[in-house]
Specification:
Elements: H1 11-22, H2 26-45, E1 51-55, E2 59-65, E3 69-73, E4 80-83, E5 87-93, H3 95-102
Antiparallel strand pairs: 1-2, 2-5, 3-4
Length: 108
């Protein structure tokens, strides 16, 4: 079975779709869409170990702490290394999106 390549959508694609949906020129939507992504990035970059950005009818972006891994191993050299605790991002889809994602895939 052949692995299927993912379809990639960029911020430009999002901007074009929003412009079409609102029936406005793409040039007028570039700045607001950029601002939304910039604000989300700023919020999630804040120095908090636990954080949630909840967007109703879409989902929740979370920042969660990870534990330190004192006995991780470098697979190339087999050397043990210490991996410090850090933060990771996580997305949990909202109810409407989750229902769509749970539908069975049709043979494409």
């Amino acid at each position: 079975m052949r692995k299927q390549k993912a379809i990639t959508f960029t911020k430009k694609d999002v901007t074009q779709r929003v412009a079409e949906k609102l029936d406005v020129p793409v040039s007028r939507m570039k700045e607001p869409v950029d601002a939304v992504f910039e604000v989300l990035r700023e919020i999630m970059s804040q120095n908090h170990s636990l954080m949630r950005v909840e967007i109703r009818n879409f989902g929740v972006f979370e920042v969660k702490p990870t534990k330190a891994k004192p006995r991780a191993r470098n697979p190339r050299t087999n050397e043990e290394v210490y991996v410090p605790p850090r933060r990771k991002s996580h997305f949990k889809p909202g109810r409407l999106l989750r229902e769509v994602l749970r539908e069975p895939l049709e043979n494409l």
